[in-house]
Amino acid sequence: MPSQERKANTVPLDWKEVWYTNCPMVSANNVDQELGWCREEYKKIGVEYDYFRHAEGNNWYPHYIHNLDNLIRFGGLYPPIHVNADIRRTVLLGATWVNEGGCMAVRASDNLFQMKDLKGKKIGLTKSQNTIKNDWWRIQEHMGIENMLMLNDMTMDDVEIVEFPYPDDWYDDPQMLTPINNPSETWLKRDHKHDYAFRPLEKALLAGTVDAIYTQSKVFQHIQEATGQLAMIEDLTRYPDWRVQVANTPAVITCTEVMAKEHPELVVAYMKAMIKVGRWSNDHKHAAAAILNRQTFYLDAEDTYEGIKNVDMVPSLSAQNMQTIKIGKDFMFKHGYIENDFDVDEWSAPEFLEKAAAEVLKEEWERRSWSKLPEGGGLDAQNVRLG
């Protein structure tokens, strides 16, 4: 179906409902979809909280173009940058940084061991023909390839880039439009860790159509290496420079400007849950890894743990997170993946995270102080000595 004939369908707006969407990557929201703590926060204020594909009237496009006013998204970096630049104003609420960078994969049977061995060789690059949504796969590949070449004193001129256009039209497949209560249900119908639909260039590499392809570090990498057919001759995560680790990461939280301005309490409720789930995940990394393993592309639960053990699962708008977001945005603007530039600092709204953190601390203090103060207490308790 041509892109112009496709429709981004949504249900009627109801501010007593908040929809969420996430990408199959490392984030507190992906842990919470199994814990249900975010749903509890919304129940406290009388609001229904559900996965956006739970409603038959919502197709897949809101995940990419954020055309639901009451949607909160926690996922890959490039689509929300595209939305805020060219589609509609959104608000940046938090980010989770995972060093994933990218690898250069080659056939294990080939005599290729270093990036310089790829001079004059063919490297694959996908190209989505779907003009409704952002081509995040291609941006990730493009950025990773450029960084790997640059770090080895090479440029795109030293290799032959082979493009692979594809329809990218599964969003309208009736089989994919069955209502889903939980994102994990998507994978019940397919073995996503071994599904080539998520590694589209791998077959072209194995067939000899190209000599190398970009793949994500740790995510995908270890599954691909385990086949014995592929080897990684470069890995950006091995470099100390965090500036080359941006690869549709960090995962960011965004909501519409409409939600932030007209219903800030809905945003704060979400951020409270993300702080609570993030803290739990930091304290129980193996448990969080077991949950994330159901949705992500690490080799197994232990491999997932190795991938997240140094990740702070509590979202933040730290100086480093903000800089990585700027790096991703600047790359997209420089290479024409977005038409309009914008200020990332102005995009961010740290006040929601700050208010949520204050409320979480207040609740925690009230729980802990209840057994120690004569009549219970809150943060406004005065002239009472504890201990």
Automatic annotation (TrEMBL):
It comes from the Bacteria. SUPFAM superfamilies: Periplasmic binding protein-like II (SSF53850). Gene3D superfamilies: 3.40.190.270, Periplasmic binding protein-like II. PANTHER family: ALIPHATIC SULFONATES-BINDING PROTEIN-RELATED (PTHR30024). This is ABC transporter substrate-binding protein. It comes from Aliisedimentitalea scapharcae. The lineage of its organism: Bacteria, Pseudomonadati, Pseudomonadota, Alphaproteobacteria, Rhodobacterales.
